[in-house]
Amino acid sequence: MARVTASASPFRCTECGWTTSKWVGRCAECQQWGTVIESAEKTGITRSIRPTAVVGDRVARPIGEIEVESATHRPSGIAEFDRVLGGGIVPGAAVLLSGEPGVGKSTLLLEVAARAAATGSRVLYVSAEESAGQVRMRAERTGALHPQLYLAAETDLATVLGQVDAVSPDLLIVDSVQTVSSGEIDGFAGGPSQVREVASALIRLAKQRGLPVLLVGHVTKDGSIAGPRLLEHLVDVVCTFDGDRQTSLRFIRALKNRFGPVDEVGCFEMSGDGIVEVSDPSGLFMSRNSKAVSGTCVTIAMEGRRALPVEVQALVVKTSAPNPRRVVSGVDSARVAMVLAVLERRAGIGLSGLDVYVSTVGGIRLTEPGADLAIALAVASAARDVPVGHDVIAVGEISLAGEIRPVSMASQRSGEARRLGFRKVLDHSTGSAESALRLALG
């Protein structure tokens, strides 16, 4: 029989468990704001926990006797979403989808709801942020109307659970978990205690009924999911939906997935009619010039396990300013500065008196070092006004010694380059950046 002794500290941090005798606005351990709450009254009396008799189906069984048919993936109807989830939505799974405001989370899940309803499943979409009329207008615009798709605008947890009992859905979508509150818990909607209670109740419902639940989550200014960290531990899958507001391209990635890999990426494009899958985004990040133009070079970037061809463009201009400008868009400014230094010192290309502009096509952001060689070739091509051939692609990291270092998933990158018709792949086998320049520019 286990024995538990209660602590004398009446206030506790919901993030890290730090305790204090008086309330403070910021936890002294994890430095989080608004996470210190008053715990239940402690008496200091030692009490006993009596074990509960386990009977029926709850008795532990050998792992080989557990049935797995009920925990198989079921396609959602959106291939790019299923790719990230590992093949589809698992019954009883809790999926958390987070993203910046206006990125398209509600539009994506409304499309998921419509596709599921079209297959005969009964779907309940609970909107706690918008009225039912607003969601109805969006569904009409995106073609998501279906008689099997039920809509409710509720912010009370008890009412949401009542709607589930009344509709008996095969899929539940809650938008969002931070705007639903429980009358049994003190605090405002979106607070740590409310988010924890709402999420726990919905996840408990999912496990008991085998009902898949998709939750929308807000993010803070630094991009992390709002609410207690416990929320990410409770759910089975954590996905992020992001993209540049200046472009229509959107990516969905899995940060946690108990039913599949976490290195897959789904690609979507926002349009006036809703959100559209992009199964082959190979042409989104490349220009359509019919003839070779100086200052451009193509590389293969990896988004998860997906290989994407990306065109890097550079422009070099003479300047009379004492400090030449270095302007970048879509690439890391620190890596561009390092590549420029290597070009000047190792390849003999003078750039100290020139303005250098480097950008990617399509608004994609390159953060991996595998784009170093493409940046170097684009800048050298612009400086010499000699175009890189249409059949040349560059993949590799450049060291300070001027050597080209290998990158991860090299075989997959090379295979994608050949599939797209690039016959000459410049990589670490070339030897050095100077050798790559000679091969690409002559």
Automatic annotation (TrEMBL):
Keywords: ATP-binding, DNA damage, DNA repair, DNA-binding, Hydrolase, Metal-binding, Nucleotide-binding, Stress response, Zinc, Zinc-finger. The keyword Disulfide bond does not apply. PROSITE patterns: RECA_2 (PS50162). A motif (RadA KNRFG motif) lies at residues 256-260. Pfam families: AAA_25 (PF13481), ChlI (PF13541), Zn_ribbon_LapB (PF18073). GO terms for molecular function: ATP binding; ATP-dependent DNA damage sensor activity; damaged DNA binding; hydrolase activity; zinc ion binding. CDD domains: RadA_SMS_N (cd01121). Residues 355-442 are annotated as: Lon-protease-like. One of its GO terms (cellular component) is cytosol. Residues 70-219 form the RecA family profile domain. ATP binds at G99, E100, P101, G102, V103, G104, K105, S106. GO terms for biological process: recombinational repair. The middle region has homology to RecA with ATPase motifs including the RadA KNRFG motif, while the C-terminus is homologous to Lon protease. Belongs to the RecA family. RadA subfamily. Plays a role in repairing double-strand DNA breaks, probably involving stabilizing or processing branched DNA or blocked replication forks. NCBIfam families: sms. This is DNA repair protein RadA. The gene is radA.
